[in-house]
Structure formats: C-alpha cells, structure tokens
Amino acid sequence: MGGMGMGTLLLKDESYAIRGAVFEVYREMGCGFLEAVYQECMEKELEKQGIPFEAQKDLSLSYKGEPLEQIYKPDLICYGEIVLELKGVKNITPRHRAQVINYLKAANIRLGLLINFGSYPKATIERLVV
User: Per-residue pLDDT tens for 78-116?
Assistant: First the structure.
C-alpha cells in the first residue's frame, strides 16, 4: 500500500470510524426499527465516539450553477464532508442509490454512505462517490 495514488480510498479513516459506530448501533438494536430510531441512536453513538456530525442540516442545491430554493436535508453529515443516509428497509434498491448520488452532486459533496439497518444479519454500508 503506497502513498496517495488513485487507489487511495476517499476519507478512509473517517469512513472506518463511522462504520464502527454503525455496527455498534446495529449490535445494540438489531433490525426492525423505524429510521428515526436509528437516526437517534447514531447521533448518540457518534457523540460517544467523538465523531463530529450535524443532523438534518439544510444543504443548498444548485442546477447548472444556479441555486435552488429546494434544500436537501441529509440524515447526518460527518466530518463536514461525508453524507450518511440511513434506511431501515429489507433491500437497498438502485433508486435509493440514485437518490443519494443525485443529492451529493447537487450539494457538491463527494462521499455518501448509504446505510441500511433493515438488513439481516448485519447492517450494510455502501460507499457512493461522485
């Protein structure tokens, strides 16, 4: 594993820390709760682990460089640059992925983590990079 080549994962250490928090919440709660429950648990766990985050922060969107009145409220933004979208569904669909990618592009953020607490036997985390 060499220096900062093309193979380097974007925000690798930060993503790793977030993964730890996600798996801790899943270990404690399991699957089957509403997304709002996982949201609250994640906020508590991120705080416990000293991971900086903002919950439901308004992000402005733009279209062809022009600001839109519509805003995007991601579930969580960690480290000021990683969007976390929390789901509690049986399966993540291409539509879920597309939605996160579209929001990332429109909000000019490069990395999103699509987190599903509804899957069994463990939570799933997908990295979406734009």
Answer: 999 999 999 999 999 999 999 999 989 888 899 999 999
CA separation for the pair 71, 57 (Å, rounded): 10
Q: 103-130 burial string, b = 16+ CB within 10 Å, else e?
A: bbebbebebbbbbbbbbeeebeeeebee
- Backbone phi, then psi, for 84, in 5-degree steps? -110, 120
Q: Where are the beta strands (DSSP E) in the chain?
A: 53-55, 59-63, 66-72, 76-78, 82-87, 111-116, 124-129
**What's the whole-model pTM score?**
0.88
Element (H, E) at 43: helix 35-48
Assigned token pair, 8: 């380097």
- Can you name the CATH fold of 33-129? Lambda Exonuclease; Chain A (3.90.320)
